[in-house]
Amino acid sequence: ATADAFTMSPNGQWVLFSSTATNLIPGVKPGGTANDPNLFRKNLKTGAIRLAVLTSGPPNGGLIPDSISDSGGLIAFEGQATNITGITPPASYLRVSAYVRDLNTGKVQQLLYQPEGTQTQGSTDASVSADGAKAAFIGLDSSGFATNVMLCVLSAGLVRSPSCRLAASAFPVF
Predict the structure, then answer these.
(1) Alpha carbon 158 to chain centroid distance?
(2) 94 partner at 20 to 30 Å CA-CA among 60, 62, 134, 142?
(3) How far apart are CA 18 and CA 4, in angstroms?
(4) What is the pLDDT of residue 13?
(5) Are 20 and 35 in contact (CB under 8 A)?
(6) Structural contact between residues 149 and 161, judged by C-beta atoms closer than 8 angstroms
């Protein structure tokens, strides 16, 4: 079992990491053929480890940690798993989706931006601010290319609708 990827909170107290380990929390197993990792949060002051993203059964796709707030209560991650607890499974045409999850309330939200008249291929590279007040992510266009950086205001760990706005275009307009 390995730790595949990780991110640390800005204040250095929390680590959000993906792992296929089966000995971190009793009964928690990786998905697929033991290749689809779970996401865990570790408190570096106390050593306590918690499952950060719940799935119905082992994850049926990859989960990647993107960021964690200073309080350790808000995380951003991306993944291809369609069995994340608390959300409607993403559309099958999405390549990958970014999410925010409030670990205190258990609420999770998919981060998507779909310009009018287009079909998005998903989102990636999500980030939450240190204070948990904002989230940012990259929206993918209908070809799967990163096109827009979106900035969203959060309220109680979730995106306030409609609070997302274009922060930057990933490609210059010629």
Answers:
(1) 12
(2) 134
(3) 5
(4) 98
(5) yes
(6) no
Q: pLDDT (tens digit, 9 = 90+) per residue, 104-124?
A: 999 998 887 766 666 677 888
SS3 of 118-172: CCCCEEEEEEECCCCCEEEEEEECCCCCEEEEEEEEEECCEECCCCCEEEEECCC
Find the angle CA(128)-CA(108)-CA(144) to the nearest 5 degrees.
70
Residue 7 structure tokens: 């991110």
129 CB-near residues (< 8 Å, 6+ apart) = 69, 135
Contact of 130 with 76, CB cutoff 8 Å:
no
Q: Cβ(125)–Cβ(137) under 8 Å?
A: yes
Give pTM, 2 decimals: 0.88
Dihedral of alpha carbons 114, 144, 126, 30, sign: positive
